[in-house]
Amino acid sequence: MNVLLVNTYDKGGAANSCKRLHMGLLAKGITSNVLLRFKQNNWPKSLCFKQPQKKRAFLDKVANKAQRILRELKLYSDIDGSKRKHQHFLSQRNRNLEMFSFPNSDCDITQSEFYKEADIINLHWVANYLDYKTFFESNKKPVVWTLHDMNPFTGGEHYLEEFLGIDAAGYPIKRNLSDEEIKIGNENFGIKKEVLSKVSNLTVVTPSEWLAKEARESEVFKNVKVHCIPYGLDTSIYAPRDKKYSRDLFGIPEGKKVVLFVADSISNNRKGFVFLKRAFEQLSDSNLVLCAIGNKNTDLSSVENAYELGPIFDERLMSIAYSAADVFVIPSLMDNLPNTVLESLVCGTPVIGFPVGGIFDMIQDGENGFITEEISVNSLVETLQKFLENPSCFDNVSIRENAIKKYDQSVQSKKYIDLFNTILKSAENKI
């Protein structure tokens, strides 16, 4: 069996999940390759996609040279009208929202040698990479699409964010879509629905039951088989480390209770850091320390007992950060199956989160963490206080053992191999 995994980047949460599955497949002897749009890291068996160059006729070369000269003189733009409209739309969009992407690109994945050699295609996070129309009209191979967010079945949003901002009482503010957002979203949704309505060799996999439900109920995937296979990770890398050593490494004082927050950017609205920041300020406990990992944000400089650790890319160092914490807090307003929660649980560190999305799949309230009553600052304060009153109420060893049973890399890869084999066998029977 030859599997091709396709992902836009080789960094970020979705990329980490893609890589972990890839490594798990390789460990089980499966021929697995990864086709990336942008390649920065040296993953084994990975390749950066390059569009094959078409042979140009003489007149094409002349026209191309003329366009280049006019472009230098600023008398010509090679950005067509639709691209210009897309760029304008994105430039006007609120920067605190998750990204928005369109269902078209200049890439034709089916032209890659990796694609041609594969028996089955496993799409992952392919925004600004997969051209829906080109790929699904050309592709004849079985496709498994691993969803890392909602984008494949929305009009462009990666999460259909219901809230934007926080009010004075500590509750999220209902978001209102603009007429332009609705118009553009409907156009993109129409393209996806039309293209995918003609596809019969597609299977969808989601990491969380929440995303599986959303996919099944969507107009795009309502007639597609949807399976739920949680993410996996290397539990030898993510493991409990000595707490004193871990805190010394980050310069965290002894005798403190440490609350940890992790995100690519702590200014991301969906990640809800502002709720944790306000909750921490209300607690005003001198024995409490807040550590934030992610791109730095000056808003945190006003908070006492707060440590900005910056972005951390090394996985072993991340396991040390989880080990330094007493509790990991994920105040996301929407989320799938966050890798950060998996990582924390496998390191034996309990988690507190809002009652949203895949958080319900991961946190068993009172066993490996707490789920708040609602999305609000007050509810987060009450839950943090409940933990701080009895921080030893969780068994760290048990948290890790139960997490390994569900999220070890080998568990995930076996489920994918079984699914791939079932799909390929079914395809053979149809021939």
UniProtKB/TrEMBL annotation:
GO terms for molecular function: glycosyltransferase activity. InterPro entries: Glyco_trans_1 (IPR001296). Pfam families: Glycos_transf_1. It is an enzyme of class 2 (transferase). It comes from the Bacteria. Keywords: Glycosyltransferase, Transferase. Its EC number is 2.4.-.-. Coiled coil: none annotated. Residues 248-404 form the Glycosyl transferase family domain. PANTHER family: GLYCOSYLTRANSFERASE WBBK-RELATED (PTHR46401:SF2). This is Glycosyltransferase. It comes from Flavobacterium taihuense. The lineage of its organism: Bacteria, Pseudomonadati, Bacteroidota, Flavobacteriia, Flavobacteriales.
